[in-house]
Amino acid sequence: MRAKRRESGSNVLESPAFVDFIARLRDNTLACDAGGKVLRLKRYVPSTAKPVVIDAVLEALKENTKIEALYLQNFEDGVYDEQLMLLLDVLRRKRIWCLNVGENFRTTLKGWKQFAEGLEDTAVAYMYASEHHFIGTDLKTRMRDIIRVNRNANEVPRSLSVIRECKNMWFNPKLPSWAKGLSRKSVDEDEKVREAKRLGAGKQQLETFLRDSRSICRGPSKRTIVQTEESLMYRASLKAQTKRAMAKEESKPRNITTNRRKRRQRGDANHSRAQEELVLSKPTISSSGRKIRRIQRD
């Protein structure tokens, strides 16, 4: 009965949205965080996803060459020991250096021991895993020692845009000292580039960060432009603001303009009548100084 429950999830696999997600993940055109380099899986896959869904994602990640940080947390019904081993195969390609795999309570201590043994062959330098399986063992200390060695080895280039996005780890990555000014919004991009040139360090990383921060980025070919998630969220917020403004305008009484126009017209008529009575009640003096008597109108 358990095996049957674990194999369910074909409805997600066959959905057009998931098929498109997997295709984009394979060809590096998925517009996720940090210019397509930080994948928070819960934004694309429900937390109730089954193992077959997680397997499909991990298989696609084997072909992806752009993702540097992976958030695979809180998939209680989808991550078992088998998924940990498949994740280890992905990490052995040494492209992902930041990993959050916490709150997956279907895994066992045996599976985590095997995962820790293979962690040495990866480039994971920053990581988080839930500690409920590690109580009474030194497994957490061993894994932290392994990722510390990987962090010092620095085999994989770490994008500045990814460093800023990576949070909720045992140890969070920090920006290099020369790039700490990037967090200040008052600093202009041209000034950042000039500062990097003056220091003579990290210029290529800085230019990559600035390019990834823009609203669009280039796809695998020069003619392909991929819209980043920041741009999509900005456009969505503008659309929501416009929709709220239109709804607010439509909720107003439709006769308010008509009533206002009637009041204005009524006021103009009263003002004209008062001016006319004032003119008719006073004698008019001609250019020669003679008074001209006006005839009162009925």
Would you give an account of this structure?
- The protein is α/β, with parallel strands linked by helices and 298 residues long.
- Among the domains are: 168 residues, Leucine-rich repeat, LRR (right-handed beta-alpha superhelix) (Alpha-Beta Horseshoe); 36 residues.
- Strands 1-2-3-4 form a four-stranded parallel sheet. The protein has a two-stranded antiparallel ribbon with strand order 5-6. A two-stranded antiparallel sheet has the order 7-8.
- The radius of gyration is 34 Å and the shape is elongated.
Number of β-strand runs: 8
Alpha plus pi helix count: 13
Q: Average pLDDT, to the nearest integer? A: 76
The portion of residues forming beta strands comes to: 5-15%
Task: Give a nutshell description of this structure.
The chain is an alpha/beta fold and 298 residues long.
Keywords:
298 residues; alpha/beta; Leucine-rich repeat, LRR (right-handed beta-alpha superhelix); two-stranded antiparallel ribbon; 7% strand
List the helices and strands and how they pair.
Blueprint: H1 2-7, H2 10-13, H3 16-26, H4 33-36, E1 38-40, H5 51-63, E2 69-71, H6 81-91, E3 98-100, H7 109-118, E4 126-128, H8 139-153, H9 160-165, H10 189-199, H11 203-213, E5 216-218, E6 225-227, H12 229-251, H13 256-281, E7 284-285, E8 291-292
Parallel strand pairs: 1-2, 2-3, 3-4
Antiparallel strand pairs: 5-6, 7-8
Helix pairs in contact: 3-5, 5-6, 6-7, 10-11
